[in-house]
Amino acid sequence: MAKLIGNKKVRTAVFISGRGSNLKNLIKFSKTKKSPIEINLVISDKEAAGLKYALHNKIKKKIIYFKNKKDAENKILDKLKKENIEFICLAGFLKILSKAFIKNFKKKIINIHPSYLPKYKGLNTSLRAIENKERFSGCTVHYVSSKLDSGKIILQKKIQIAKNETEKSLDKKVIKQEHKIYPAAILKIFN
């Protein structure tokens, strides 16, 4: 990733599918002096609850339904080009981007994942970790590659699983750490 030039922040899009807690956190981070990014666009694949944060912060938002993946990705690419987006943060975006899409943003798309990768790629990570009697879970920020949750790791945080842990309690612990490591990973990339 290129270094920052002067005080110009990197034009960034955040992709979401859900409640948007990582989006909210990234918006807050982007407004700090030390942040190398500014959030100019929020993309969602549905009417996600998290879109309210874009509205509240006067950030452009676009819903692009994935009825046809290729069409949807082309629409997204057009929108990213129009907004001069240079960097993408996936924050609970539940669609898998194609190799062709990723090529357009090589090493410029990152994702936050709620497990200590390479363990537990995909969904229901906390539940699977508990069911398999793991002692640790965690969260990972990684570059996006065409293989699900397999890109180069930027930053990780290990989280101990308590004896009486539930999926809900572990999810809460994980999201709390996600909110810390996502901004830290962005700082690491640009510094």
Explain this structure to me?
The protein has 191 residues and is an alpha/beta fold. The protein has two domains: 98 residues, Formyl transferase, N-terminal domain (Rossmann fold); 79 residues, 3-Layer(aba) Sandwich (Rossmann fold), CATH 3.40.50. The protein is built from six helices and seven strands; from the N terminus they run βαβαβαβαβαββα. Strands 3-2-1-4-5-6-7 form a seven-stranded mixed β-sheet, sandwiched between helices. Strand 1, helix 1 and strand 2 form a beta-alpha-beta unit. Helix 1 packs parallel to helix 6. It is globular.
Number of domains: 2
Q: Major β-sheet, in short? A: 7 strands, mixed
How many beta-strand segments?
7
User: Architecture of the largest domain in CATH?
Assistant: 3-Layer(aba) Sandwich
> Percentage of helical residues?
25-40%
Strand content: 15-25%
SSE topology:
Blueprint: E1 10-16, H1 21-30, E2 37-44, H2 51-56, E3 60-63, H3 69-82, E4 87-90, H4 99-103, E5 109-113, H5 125-131, E6 136-143, E7 153-160, H6 167-190
Helix pairs in contact: 1-6
Tags for this model:
191 residues; alpha/beta; Rossmann fold; 2 domains; globular
How would you briefly describe this protein structure?
The protein has about 190 residues and is of the alpha/beta class. The chain has six helices and seven strands. The protein has helices spanning about 20-30, 50-55, 70-80, 100-105, 125-130, 165-190, and strands at about 10-15, 35-45, 60-65, 85-90, 110-115, 135-145, 155-160.
